[in-house]
Amino acid sequence: MSRRGHAKDALTATEPSPAVAPLATNGGTAHREGPPDPRDDPGTAAATAPWDGPALLAAVTAATDALTANRDRINALNVFPVPDGDTGTNMGLTMRAALDEAAALRGPAAARAGEVAAKVAYGALMGARGNSGVILSQIFRGFARAVADEDAIDGPALAAALVQAREMAYKAVMRPVEGTMLTVIRGAAERAAARAAVDPSLVGVIGAATEGAEAALATTPDLLDILRQAGVVDAGGQGVVHILAGMARYARGEASVPADATGTTDPAAVGAEMAFLDKVEELHGEDIFGYCTNFMVFGERIDFERSRAELAAMGESAVIVGDDTVLKVHIHVLNPGMVLDYALRLGELGQIKIDNMQAQTRALSDQRGERREQQHEQRHEQRHEAAQQTSAGRPVPAVAAASDTAAVAPLGRQAILAVAAGDGLGEALRSMGASGIIRGGQTMNPSIEELLDAVTVAEQDEVILLPNNPNIVLTANHVPELTSKRVRVVPSRSVPQGLAALAAHQSDGDLDANAAAMVAALASVRTVELTRAVRDATINGVAVRAGQAIGLLDDVLVASGDDDDAVTGAALAEAGLDDAELVTVFTGEGIAPEQAETLRATIAADHPGVEVEVYAGGQPHYRYVIAVE
Amino acid sequence: MARVAIVTDSTADLPPEIARRAGITVVPLNVHFGDEVFRDGVDLTTGDFLRRLGSSDRLPTTSQPSAGLFTETYRRLATDHDAIVSVHISGKLSGTVGAATIARDDVASEVAVEVVDSATASMALGLLALRGAALAEEGLDGSAIAARLRAEAPGHHMVFFVDTLEYLRRGGRIGAARALLGSILDLKPILRVEDGVIVPLERTRTRVRARRSLVGFVRGLPTVARLAVLHNSTPDEARELADEFRLIVPRDEVLIAEMGPVIDTHVGPGAMGVAVAERMEP
């Protein structure tokens, strides 16, 4: 299967960001004027005052509001018009986590901008979801570092903070690729710095930053070929624009307003950043040699920059993050002992993991959450509970499964954790042997942290992860690096694939044999999905209008029309029903299994050799998720 | 030369003709439909059983043979045998071994009886009993045969699938397969008798896949000496499956057998399985 022909793959392989739209629509951000020029509006006294702690909190709140207000709209804007996981949601949740952390600050510290920024950065790091969230967290990390000693932030300080944010964002990946969020934060930082030199007002600087970001966003298709091919701009970059615009609104003394009324929410300008992230993964995989060496260093007054440079010089593919108290090191070296010797001089070592790279390198582009997790586990859990966004999969003891519930004990030696949205899909996965269900999927991508939590609480030391979504596969791929448990990711792209993989799991098999069998089983099932187009589009030569039914076969749009059943039938026909043995239809949220009866009867009549089963899947957005085996 | 009698029970699902030719004595368990009691395979065939099951509103239950029946059997065999090896269904699934052990002690002064817990059931037990008969034919004495059977029992596998878990659940023999209950999917789970209990091996959702899994299990074994396809109501499917096995196992060593009423009570109509004996050192 070609990558390009694969809509979800090509567009959203790494990041839940099918949030892309044609540049041509509505003129797009690229062709629009920037926000009202602050020079035309000198602003109020409040607007010109430097941001102290509470003001910075308010600015971040406004940024979060701006992003959140546009979230659904961005999510709905896909080059591939399916309601799916998305950059908007991930960045929004990352911002929300940042804001919650900062809002909890009390006492004199809350008055200081530097302290508030530090909390924002910490919250963003812990809540980082998806690749865009991880990079966003690095932007805030740089910002926070720059203003650490500031009680209040004025225009020049803000410009300096954006410059540092840019540097940190570029450092988050070893081989930065232009045409991404990085380009956009760079545009913001450059324009902000230039403006600060001639106009030190806060309003002027943040306004300039927004303009710079928008201008840079418009260039992303020129810089990254896949964006040009898709005719879109970078989605993560669009998120950065919203965040800066929200801050600018606050600086001008304007209230947060609904998405549609703001000047910065043009739907045209959203894009796909996965191309960039894909490349990071691919590049990382090129220099397979020696030992993939991972460890952490806990010390005091570590000279971060120097250590980073010296360590990086020892090998290839170095990803080294941290600060003066902790380093997280990932590097490919011929002699791991040499690196560890060096690191020992910096402090105590932890979480040492060394893999001889034969078959694969594990991409670890920018993970650093688990260090904080250990240090702040308790607080983090409280926050998690408060957020109630997820229920990590809990292993179900065999005894508990005796009741006639959907609780089913894990099969054998391995815990199998599967991602699913919809109670019915979760139960189906449990029925086939999944020991835990992690909430998420097409509209809610779990964070690395959530996947990691589920792995941590699993009873077994061997864990198999089933992401069941193309947008979660890469997130899942980071998990093995972050735990001492033996974790294998079986890159299932749909729940039907997850079910097929589970069927290949043998209770008495060993981890690698099972993982290999499960990977092989992925190809044994085809996935047909029926949903509705969220906007007009022409994909793969199939034209659809917003609201029309669209049928997908293994993520590729194959049918559209006004009649659900007809579209489903057409998509199933593409799936080659004559060779099928079993067709399992999972009905979506709010759709009773009886409603699929016509479909069942039609398939059974046309293909007498095929068994058809219908279950309530409960998944959002997708009327039917169908496994053809 | 010492003559050793081989005794097993009706859960071995040995086709009567094969048992007769091998000289194996089969002690029946009992099937109860309400107040009516039938001796497994003696006054109730698989066909009778399934017809009754279809028309009865109460599900049948089963019970082990009485110790008295074993005593009687051993005494009868003692008249023309020097020793008896009595090999039975897993003690974790039935009290049959217990009844045989009581009988062994009762007749201790008359004849030496070795009771062997096969830790399996159905034709896996049947194949073990056949192995015992072959060893008796070779002239081994009772304790030597018992020792060999105990050593070889782990090489006798019973793998099967059920059309529904309901019968296993009601019969209480579900073991670790309990974990499969409550599935929202219509599973055809692959189960295995292992260490005397029923454990889930794989989850499949169609009979075609389930049969494929049975073949896969056999292919995964290093050697196969003998194999039996088990069914209770699907003779055509059983023949097809046997033909598949004949591609990988010597033709004459592939048998087809019906699961008898006692086994059927616990697995339900539509169950199928395969019993395999691995090749052991001579």
UniProtKB/TrEMBL annotation, chain B:
InterPro entries: DegV (IPR003797), DegV_C (IPR043168), DegV_domain_contain (IPR050270). Keywords: Lipid-binding. One of its GO terms (molecular function) is lipid binding. It comes from uncultured Thermomicrobiales bacterium. This is DegV family protein. The keyword Ribonucleoprotein does not apply. The keyword Transferase does not apply. Pfam families: DegV (PF02645).
